[in-house]
Amino acid sequence: MNKLSQITNVLKRTFFPSERRRIRAEKLLAEFMSTCCIQAEDASRVGFREAYDAYCNWCRRSTNEPLRKRAFAELMERRFRRERSGGHIYFSGLSLS
């Protein structure tokens, strides 16, 4: 097993201790994305804090328990390219509706 695979496995166990929780988290995020986000082909980007706040607000309205920030970030990074600029983190190719 290479080093990257080992790190990935540790991250999965840390943020999603069970496969069942990970699948639920991915489904919840997909529902948020389809309801509140637009995947853009242009140079659109959304700040991490803005995206996470929108996600938490959506969770409250839909009576779901929000993911922790690190778990949210991990799942978002699987879908979007992460950028750093001026000390802030952004997700490229995404806008909030």
The value of Rg in angstroms is 14 Å
Mean pLDDT: 83
Which strand order spans the largest sheet, edge to edge or round the barrel? 2-4-3
Question: From N to C, what is the helix and strand string?
Answer: HHEEHHEEE
In short:
The chain is α+β, with helices and mostly antiparallel strands and 97 residues long. Helices cover 58% and strands 20% of the residues. The model has no long low-confidence stretch (mean pLDDT 83).
List keywords for this structure.
alpha+beta, 97 residues, two-stranded antiparallel ribbon
Structural account:
The structure is a single chain. By secondary structure, the chain is of the alpha+beta class. The longest helix has 18 residues, at 19-36. The model has no long low-confidence stretch (mean pLDDT 83). It is globular, with a radius of gyration of 14 Å. The strands form two sheets. A three-stranded antiparallel β-sheet has the order 2-4-3. The protein has a two-stranded antiparallel sheet with strand order 1-5. The chain is built from four helices and five strands. Helices cover 58% and strands 20% of the residues.
